[in-house]
Write a structure and sequence with these properties.
two-stranded parallel sheet, eight-stranded antiparallel sheet, alpha+beta, elongated, Jelly Rolls, 47 helices, Leucine-rich Repeat Variant, Virilizer N-terminal domain-containing protein
């Protein structure tokens, strides 16, 4: 809301003005209006007046602390300190709004303004604050949803029909502006000298090729092309000029290669017809040979080959042979070899780029890398841009390609991308061309200068820096030497403040988020040129942070190594994170450029007596991982600087990838491996939380993807290394470290377990018939070491994850260790142990937890033994060989039946057991049959009646009559028939036949008439009527036998219910569930002297240590030397005041002190829950 509207005029020489609010307010923004503006539509008479047009304004807010919600009622309020919070507003003209972040702990009642202004019109927005403490009641509010706003179509050049249109519109803001093509040539290709800028004809100063009527040499022709050639020049003039150059070539002239290369370079950005004429007249075979190719010549050819026509001319066998010969010369320096390789790659990449423009199946990744390489050098960039805007065939191919349907949100020159479509590539090319043309307009407007066009152009570039896809293009091209120099000039002497200078500081502040910018010495020079308190938008604290990173870059590799191995680096704030990122970028650049690679970096450190670079990088990665996890903990994270999470993720990506590079040169112990795995795990969990848990900005999401991939990469590299020490392999150390971390209760336990499961699944070898022997060997060397931790980890996984991981391990095992049988046995043991908590006698929550846990075990067994499982037959056959398997299954099913609970998984499990005929034990088969019958009593199951009765009858037929529990069978059948009779659907004839056949079999086993519990007479009559009316011929007459032997017996037993998928309980109930049971306190029994501690020493008499021999009473009174005499007796000397000494190592190896353990097993231990913790 509007708090205040005012026209402020400073008072006297102090230049102060003040605004006092009626009550404490929290200011949110200050909006300044220019002279003549009408701030409010409803008040047209209110007109703003602000003079001068630009100035700095110091603003001071009185700090008014607010009472907190936890402040006790009745407690006197704290005295308000007279503190002022300062800030600076740089007003550069126009209507501008400045945001104010006062936080939740303070408000203000006074605003003081000071500055070199005559008057200023401002509107202050915010909200009034009450002095009463805020309410302590909690009201849940929905989380804010970040809705992305699409970029304006005028600025979304990737979808534009003409990507150069925006640049032409910006150029039109300059009166009498030249064409865009001429601006590109003058700004990037043919730099006009300073004298030309003062000529009245500038910029229309062209090379006059017609005045060269006399013979010319190569030097004069080269100098003639220092200016652009007019586009309307006649073809005859071009032809004559080309012929004269051809005539000037002399085989004995050693400078011919240099001048021809220079002529080709200067003509590469000219009209396409000019290049064609030169190609027709000059025979390059007579010009170039290996002996005349020096560094300057090759660099000129490198720039010239950015023109597609010249690239085709040079991409021949004879020229490639010359390059190979020049590269193999003994006198060739490394710099020349490097440039020759770049020239060879550019000739090849032009073909790839042209093919990618028209071929939907082109190599888009290589084509984009070609564009990235061109954008790193100013002249090559200008020639390519000039060709793309003047060569009609190239431009039409780009414009007529498939349109981009979605936003440009991909960094296509990321080599990890593989799913790039043709439309994505062409959209990226359009965006690249459009941004490059806008940069050319910016350079032209800054050179004139033209403030209006420059301000608009910089505003567009600043906006693009906040748009994914465009951000990467803009930041890459801004690192050109010319662009960096222009930004440096605009950030110096910005007093009074101007919008171009403010834009330039914003652009640099966004640019420094990428550490690669510090690899440019020109950018480092820009940062180092800033003086303290000389900037408008960038704070002094931020400037010092940038200065620190620039100092690291200026020191080169030595500075980078020193930054990584600092003994006391300080907290991980923005300044340190930026310096670390710059240091790693420098090291990575040296590794890629130096032939020695990582070894050269390490040797540089060794010369400076730095021998632990690898371990310092690992420790730093661990520290960053810990800081990242604090941001995603269940407790309130500490306040952090803006966008620091994104910087943490980017730094983690760099650190882990550097570790992967240095790993082959490091000798790692188990401790180092564990620490590295911990670091990777911390980063992985934080990155995964960014991707799955919270809604983040696109840039943060992309950083999370990169960090997560880096974790997998470094762990894969680490796992593929050699054995460190028998019998433990690296894989055992890595996996065991991960598995043990799953038992630590930090953050969201479910999320943590899922993330560790993802890592473990990734690190396991891939089962393959081609690697059976190696996989079995891996299991033999690794699994025994991690088996205990693996068992605990498998137990806390959900069913899907457990089955997936067990399936991987069974496939890897391939019978070497019989892992499948071991796991089935462990599942049966746990099920059997938990079955005692399923029935009555436990609390409600204990029963619910036990039932769900047992049901998950049944689901696991059912999925592993299913015929659709790749290991179904192996797991099913394990039941034959596991001792006590049948008894364990029988105990679990009996417990479910007695507790009157059921589940879908239980029904599927008994179907598998019935179809396989695994067990011959009659008690097991009886429980399986009873479970089939019970399933019909549960209406939610919709069990197949005929299937259940047929399976039950078939199984029961294999049991001897003596082993049949007829009373239990009658109870189950009675309640089953009651459920069938309660159904509203008619009974299917097939079901009736199965029921009659089963009941007839039961009647044959009964010694006489028996009762059917749970069945009423009316239901029984209904069933009997159905038996008689719809009986099949094969069961005709059975109903009479059934009615004669079976009699209904109603009862009021509770129905069987389905096991719920979830358990709801209060926090207090959960705390009680996690609380281990404690023995009931009782008075200890009196012990005889021989049983207490004094009984360990032979006493004669027992009271000799307690009393003086001269005293018969209870009072201790010593006379003369009787105390010393007492200590001289043999019995006294047997007692000592301390235990024997123990070495510290022996002490650490001994077990810890015993603790009170529950006398009876608690369900918490059986469920595998976490240790108890205090919820308060």
């Amino acid at each position: 809301m509007l708090l205040q509207w005012c026209n402020l005029t400073p008072y006297g020489s102090s230049k102060l003005a003040a605004i006092r609010f009626a009550s404490p307010c929290r200011v949110q923004s200050v909006r300044i209006f220019p002279t003549g503006a009408v701030p409010f539509a409803t008040a047209p008479l209110v007109v703003a007046r602000t003079e001068p047009e630009a100035f700095f304004m110091d603003v001071y807010f009185n700090a008014h602390p607010l009472p907190s919600a936890s402040q006790a009622e009745g407690k006197p309020k704290l005295k308000t300190p007279n503190a002022l919070i300062p800030t600076v507003i740089p007003y550069a003209g126009g209507q501008v709004e400045f945001a104010v972040n006062m936080g939740a702990d303070f408000a203000t009642r006074l605003m003081i303004v000071r500055g070199d202004f005559e008057t200023v019109s401002m509107a202050i927005y915010g909200e009034p604050i009450s002095d009463t403490p805020p309410s302590t009641s909690y009201e849940p509010q929905p989380l804010p949803v970040l809705n992305s706003v699409s970029i304006s179509p005028a600025l979304d050049l990737a979808k534009s029909t003409d990507p150069t249109n925006l640049a032409r519109q910006l150029l039109s803001l300059i009166s009498h502006a030249p064409s865009l093509n001429l601006v590109i040539r003058l700004m990037f290709c043919l730099k006009p000298p300073n004298d030309d800028w003062d000529l009245p004809e500038f910029p229309h100063l062209y090379s006059d090729l017609n005045e060269e009527d006399i013979d010319i040499d190569l030097d004069s022709a080269f100098r003639c092309l220092s200016r652009p050639v007019a586009d309307d020049i006649s073809g005859d003039a071009l032809q004559r000029f080309g012929e004269k150059i051809a005539e000037a070539i002399s085989p004995t002239d050693n400078t011919r290669s240099y001048f021809i290369a220079g002529i080709l370079c200067r003509s590469a950005s000219q009209h396409p017809d000019f290049v064609h004429v030169l190609m027709q007249n000059i025979d390059l075979d007579r010009v170039f040979d290996a002996s005349t190719l020096d560094e300057d010549t090759i660099l000129a050819l490198l720039d010239a080959s950015t023109n597609p026509d010249i690239a085709r001319l040079l991409d021949t066998d004879w020229f490639r042979a010359i390059l190979e010969s020049a590269q193999e010369l003994p006198a060739a320096e490394p710099e020349i070899r490097k440039v020759i390789r770049r020239l060879t790659d550019r000739l090849r990449d032009w073909k790839v780029f042209e093919e990618a423009l028209s071929n939907p199946d082109g190599d888009f990744t290589s084509a984009v890398q070609f564009m990235k390489d061109i954008g790193s050098e100013e002249k090559s960039f200008g020639i390519w841009l000039s060709c793309m805007t003047t060569h009609e065939e190239l431009l039409s191919t780009v414009l007529n390609g498939p349109p981009l349907e979605h936003d440009l949100a991909r960094v296509l020159w990321d080599a990890a991308l593989t799913d790039v479509s043709h439309a994505d590539f062409l959209g990226f090319v359009k965006a690249y061309i459009g941004v490059a043309c806008v940069l050319a307009v910016y350079a032209w407007s800054d050179s004139l200068p033209n403030d209006h066009c420059r301000e608009r152009t910089l505003g567009v570039l600043r906006l693009w820096q906040d748009v994914p896809g465009y951000r990467e293009i803009v930041n890459h091209l801004l690192l050109l030497r010319q662009m960096t120099f222009r930004l440096e000039c605009m950030t110096m002497d910005n007093d009074p403040p101007a919008m171009p200078g403010i834009h330039a500081e914003n652009i640099i502040l966004n640019l420094v988020n990428e550490p690669q910018c510090y690899l440019s010495p020109h950018f480092v020079k820009c940062i180092r040129s800033w003086q303290p308190f000389s900037l408008t938008y960038i704070s002094e604290e931020e400037r010092i942070s940038l200065e620190r990173a620039a100092a690291v870059a200026e020191d080169g590799l030595h500075g980078a190594i020193d930054e990584l191995v600092k003994s006391d680096p300080g907290p991980l704030n923005t300044g340190r994170v930026r310096a670390l990122r710059v240091a790693i970028a420098l090291i990575q650049c040296r590794v890629e450029e130096d032939e020695a690679g990582c070894l050269g970096v390490l040797q540089t450190g060794w010369k400076e007596d730095v021998y632990g670079l690898f371990f310092s990088v690992v420790d730093t990665a661990f520290e960053v991982g810990q800081e990242l996890n604090k941001q995603f903990s269940l407790t309130m994270p500490p306040p952090t600087e803006r966008s620091l999470v994104e910087q943490f993720l980017l730094l983690s990506d760099q650190l882990l990838r550097l570790v992967a590079r240095l790993e082959p040169f490091a000798v790692m112990t188990s401790r180092t491996i564990r620490r590295l795995v911990d670091a990777a795990l911390f980063v992985f969990m934080a990155a995964d939380s960014v991707l799955h848990v919270i809604s983040t900005l696109p840039s943060v999401y992309a950083s999370g993807v990169r960090a997560k991939q880096a974790c997998l990469h470094v762990l894969g590299i680490l796992l593929g290394s050699t054995v460190i020490a028998a019998p433990k392999t690296r894989s055992a150390v890595i996996l065991r470290t991960l598995l043990q971390k799953s038992r630590i209760v930090e953050g969201d336990p479910c999320q943590r377990i899922r993330q560790i499961f993802e890592l473990v699944s990734f690190l396991l070898p891939t089962p393959s018939p081609d690697f059976v022997e190696s996989n079995s060997q891996w299991m033999l060397s690794t699994l025994p070491v991690i088996l205990d931790d693996l068992e605990n980890f498998l137990y806390i996984l959900d069913v899907d994850q457990r089955c997936e991981l067990v399936g991987q391990l069974i496939a890897l095992d391939d019978g070497a260790l019989n892992f499948g049988e071991w796991f089935i046995q462990q599942e049966l043991m746990r099920m059997s142990d938990l079955s005692r908590f399923v029935m009555e006698g436990q609390t409600e929550h204990v029963r619910a937890m036990a039932q769900q846990t047992v049901n998950r075990h049944i689901q696991t067994l059912m999925r592993l033994m299913s015929p659709s499982s790749s290991h179904g037959s192996l797991c099913m056959s394990a039941l034959y060989v596991i001792p006590g398997a049948g008894q364990a299954i029988s105990d679990v099913m009996a417990a479910f039946l007695n507790a009157r609970v059921y589940s879908y998984s239980l029904l599927e499990f008994v179907r598998l057991l019935a179809s396989s005929s695994v067990f011959i034990d009659p008690s097991v088969n009886l429980v399986i049959a009873l479970t089939f019958i019970r399933g019909i009593s549960v209406p939610e199951l919709h069990a197949d009646i005929s299937e259940a009765f047929d399976h039950a009858r078939e199984i029961l037929s294999t049991i001897d009559s003596a082993a049949l529990a007829l009373d239990r069978l009658l109870w189950e059948f009675g309640h089953c028939l009651s459920a069938i009779a309660n159904s509203e659907d008619p009974i299917d004839p097939v079901d009736l036949r199965a029921i009659v056949s089963t009941l007839h079999w039961l009647c044959e086993k009964l010694p006489g008439p028996s009762d059917l519990p749970g069945l009423s007479w009316d239901k029984w009559d209904t069933l009997c009527e159905a038996f008689e009316n719809q009986a099949a011929p094969e069961v005709e007459g059975f109903s009479k036998t059934i009615k004669g032997k079976l009699t209904p017996l109603p009862d009021s037993s509770s129905p069987t219910r389905m096991i719920s998928d979830t358990v709801s309980m209060s926090t207090r109930d959960l705390e009680l569930l996690l609380q281990p049971s404690v023995p009931v306190p009782s008075t200890p029994k009196r012990k005889s002297p021989s049983q207490d501690i004094l009984g360990l020493v032979a006493l004669s008499p027992p009271t000799a240590l307690l009393r003086s021999p001269a005293i018969s009473g209870l009072t201790k009174m010593y006379t003369r030397n009787d105390f010393r005499e007492l200590r001289q007796t043999p019995s006294a000397r047997q007692n000592t005041s301390r235990l024997p000494s123990m070495h510290v190592d022996e002490f650490e190896l001994t077990s810890s002190s015993p603790i009170i353990e529950p006398t009876i097993g608690h369900p918490v231990e059986a469920f595998g829950l976490a240790p108890p913790f205090n919820l308060a």
